[in-house]
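Our consortium's second objective concerns turning raw sequence data into structural hypotheses that experimental partners can test. To show how far this objective has progressed, the report includes one record in full. It was chosen at random from the queue rather than selected for favorable results. The single chain below, 271 residues long, was entered without modification.
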Amino acid sequence: MQGWKHFIPTDQKIKYLNALLKVGFSVLDCGSFVSPKAIPQMADTAEVIKSLDLKDTTTKLLVIVANNRGAEEAVQFAHIDYIGFPLSLSPTFQMRNTNATIEEALLRIDSIQTLCKHHQKKLVVYLSMGFGNPYGDAYSPELLHKYTAALVDLGIDIISLADTVGLATPEQIERALNALMPIYPEVSFGVHLHATSLNWDKKLQAAINSGCLRFDGAINGIGGCPMAQDDLVGNMDTLQMLSFFKDAGWDIPIDEKALKEAIILASSIFR
């Protein structure tokens, strides 16, 4: 929702997220504790979370933070299971996204990790611009290794490689995961992919070929990061992903009726 140009009323956010909670997804990214000046769409996250119906769901909640202040607010919510933080391989994007250098962001991660342990939360770090960037900043597999190693040293055991602006090729995705996963078997690696209608399946297959089991998606591919650039390649479409997994013979425990209801809501909200 954060990249949607028009403010989505709080009651609509609550209704949509409650619908998604009935579908059976493992994790639901339900908001962000970030500056309302930077991301006005997320200014009501606290109010939204307080109104979610969690009685009959197995879905765990994740929120994004950009600094200690946001993390301190997020950990006060008992029903939040995961705190997400974006660490960029691009110095330019790290500053744009979190108003910090990469080195400062690593210090924030260390502090947030301590908070998470104290409050029984799990910290998920997204390696944004994980396959290159549009700013001309240096990118190499060595940088990917360097910052993955730094995160592991801080005790981070969930890392998602983020194709923030859709630059990754299937070959890059497979190569990166194959290089990292055997070295850090204690880490749960995931992918946060952006794709077009022409390459989404190839990117998804590349991640699967590498043994990845953690995938982010959005219904109808809606969304993106408003701090990246104006014309983003969309998020990977959850519906296409579910169809792909089904064709591959994976048993995904999804409530089809609840999914259809969430799709109808998405069509009425995101238009």
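The partners drew two points from this record. The chain has a mean pLDDT of 94. The two ends are 12 Å apart (CA to CA). Both points have been shared with the crystallography group to help prioritize constructs.
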